[in-house]
Amino acid sequence: MNLWEYIEDRWDLIVFETVQHASMVAQCVLVATVLGVLVGVATYRRPRPSAFATAVAGVLFTIPSLAMLGLLIPPLGLGVAPSVTAIVLYALLPIIRNTVVGLRGVDPALVDAARGIGMSRHRSLTRVELSLAWPVILTGIRVATQLAMGIAAVAAYVSGPGLGEQIFSGLARLGGANAVNSTLTGTIGVAILALLFDGCFVLLGKLTTPGTGAVRG
102 lies in which domain range? Predict the structure, then answer.
């Protein structure tokens, strides 16, 4: 059985695992974005808290993914819970770092001007600073998504959902029937999803970034 015949024979299962993979990555990145941006907004004006938050996220980032997933098994068991937790933790670093860098890069004169026309600190943050920092923050989210795509595949190690099951199943049966087809199907599926997500972020950037002829909030 060649690769195409393998995919055709298991089409429904592969589509199901692809949807699971995409859904898990999208939801995890959304959670990481909310947490990461909140941490970045809360700390960007204060060097020590922002350095601490970045350092903690950086330490988590350095833990090998298999070790992280293994460490999460005792408290969370197998399946979705450890998979989602690991993906969110890995996705935090680029989002926190880019949020801090983006907000610090806003011209102080523009912030003073916003305050000068009567904007409150909260309104200046939401209407001026976050808007100007958005391209940098979006880049962090984009990097986090590509990272999450790979970690989600490794999450099959703890029985996580998605295309990682095809990869791990193939590797476990290496040398057996359809082992290579299974591994290739999972790998190619993850790569295609990564490209599709990246394309969506490029489009989102064009639609929401000032100066690109796009819609502005």
Answer: 3-208
Distance of CA 56 to the CA centre of its chain: 17
Residues present in the chain in total: 217
Give per-residue burial for 174-183: e unless 16+ CB within 10 Å, then b. Answer: eeeebebbbb
User: Is 213 a member of any domain?
Assistant: no
Amino acid at 110: L
Helices (H), the chain: 3-9, 11-43, 47-62, 65-76, 80-104, 108-116, 121-124, 130-154, 164-172, 179-208
Total tally of structural domains belonging to the chain: 1
Asked whether residue 86 is assigned to any structural domain, the reply reads: yes
CB 54 within 8 A of CB 100: yes
Indicate the pTM of the whole model.
0.90
**Given the structure tokens 């999208």, which residue do they identify?**
26
- Domain membership flag for residue 22: yes
Check which CATH number belongs to the domain holding 49 and give it: 1.10.3720.10
Q: How many whole angstroms separate alpha carbon 27 and alpha carbon 160?
A: 14
pLDDT tens, residue by residue, 96-135: 999 999 999 999 898 888 888 888 888 889 889 999 999 9
